[in-house]
Amino acid sequence: xxxxxxxxxxxxxxxxxxxxxxxxxxxxxxxxxxxxxxxxxxxxxxxxxxxxxxxxxxxxxxxxxxxxxxxxxxxxxxxxxxxxxxxxxxxxxxxxxxxxxxxxxxxxxxxxxxxxxxxxxxxxxxxxxxxxxxxxxxxxxxxxxxxxxxxxxxxxxxxxxxxxxxxxxxxxxxxxxxxxxxxxxxxxxxxxxxxxxxxxxxxxxxxxxxxxxxxxxxxxxxxxxxxxxxxxxxxxxxxxxxxxxxxxxxxxxxxxxxxxxxxxxxxxxxxxxxxxxxxxxxxxxxxxxxxxxxxxxxxxxxxxxxxxxxxxxxxxxxxxxxxxxxxxxxxxxxxxxxxxxxxxxxxxxxxxxxxxxxxxxxxxxxxxxxxxxxxxxxxxxxxxxxxxxxxxxxxxxxxxxxxxxxxxxxxxxxxxxxxxxxxxxxxxxxxxxxxxxxxxxxxxxxxxxxxxxxxxxxxxxxxxxxxxxxxxxxxxxxxxxxxxxxxxxxxxxxxxxxxxxxxxxxxxxxxxxxxxxxxxxxxxxxxxxxxxxxxxxxxxxxxxxxxxxxxxxxxxxxxxxxxxxxxxxxxxxxxxxxxxxxxxxxxxxxxxxxxxxxxxxxxxxxxxxxxxxxxxxxxxxxxxxxxxxxxxxxxxxxxxxxxxxxxxxxxxxxxxxxxxxxxxxxxxxxxxxxxxxxxxxxxxxxxxxxxxxxxxxxxxxxxxxxxxxxxxxxxxxxxxxxxx
Length: 724
Description:
This protein is of the alpha/beta class. It is built from 19 helices and 30 strands. Helix 5 (about 195-205) crosses helix 6 (about 225-240), helix 7 packs across helix 14 and helix 18 (about 645-660) runs antiparallel to helix 19. The two termini are about 50 Å apart.
């Protein structure tokens, strides 16, 4: 018997499979999808079995034997192997990199011996073979009496000198038991009764069970989409099937996971990047062992090894977080659609601000549109006020407008809560010297460093470069440093100075870096331990705080001014979603949006809460300029160590593309990428716009292969990028 095994190979664009003999002792054990250890050169490495056959293969190398089966529990299902093939074709990645992407630490294949992430806890019980028990103390007798009643007790509960004596005498024995690190202790709550509108939406989707129909659930903020998800999943579980529930951000996982624990108890596994490696390993094993029916997670949870899937739900489907920026550059929504067709089950895409691509497909009846136009209970959409910051600046209101200051004071007096959005972390966005003009810049990326006052560090938010800020200018050594720009850290300080009796908490990447901080901040704010929550875009979606009556957007122009074709869409979504955090109970909500462009059409659409108006305007713009959803996009970055080399290679790549693709395909560039120098490398970008072009994929594969071993440059291809 022989097995075809795929292993990791140092050349990024190449897959390497090798045939190995299967030892007779493994004949009845080995299966396709198993992880095995094989000899490779002078070392032993891990790989995955792709095929098993009986006939002696024709190979140019001496056949060697598989050393061992690494894990008889981890077996990649036929579905996951097909997903790997799909990923390889759609993102131009290798099959082994697709497989590695699907797996948590501890289960990936590699050259180095992986750490064992299995978690054990020690329990104590009486030794059944010990008959003559000599007890020398009252403490020992108490332990024995307890074990006679309880049979097994956790060692931590009785870890004392008496126990040590009993263990030494072999009167009691210690047993190691594999346990999971995450243990839900939330009590299951009674299911909420759906409104008539929710019930109608539920029924329409339920009628699509056992079909691969994609539904677009377009529900305004606060319309109760989560309750529909829960009822749909309960219906799926009744049919002995499983469910996948996806959210875009870790901050959303915290609240929705709690809600799902309340609905399903321990029948839920959680998958997201803030879990420790051991916790990810545990949660993955729960799924693999079929111990849970529901998986809640972020982007990577789309690969959860759920069998007998009954439904996939993607909340906030318009979020760019579902697209992975690193290799392989997959979009989780595409993988979900693949799994929907594979299992013949419905896929539900939901949002208060659907992506233009999804709404366009719904308009063409490719997706089935379901709308929710009413908020739950007595809550209504908040009243939105637009403030012209140009006028406020003349009044010396540089950060908080007069209206926002007044409203914050008013809400604090009423003991209501406030959320303030500023989509820029740090204290100041750059520091310059008024004496010589020096600006702190990143030496790797050639952009200004952001100042973080708490740590007194200057940091590059792209490559992570970090230095301590000096009190004097590094160039002229004068004490003439000036701080410009506004970040969440500075806003937090300003609020504490203006409202000294208020309790302010900040939620951004700087404070949520520590494990468990997302959950801690959200729960603290929900429990009314704080009055004001300051945050970046992570506070804009999915969070439900009944006491929040005011939302303030400090600078609405931040995302509007980004040079990207999606900047209007991203701005509308961000502002509409954060506005939706206000007035979600019986307290009336208000939203104040500060902007230097009060007459901007997108800002006006947010003020009027008119998605349709925005959609028609933006679709006309996209059609005219040949952007998605009218055209597909491919972004190609040519990256080199020097400016001239990268530019020359980019010109060659463009010339090759133009000579090998359809005449209707548009090739733009090369131009400098949004950041020319990143991590000490120069980047040039080529954009391809196309509708139908059968030759394009093969052309891109050829380009990738040609640059696979190029030491001066490399190619980064992103098919259907979310930003350019």
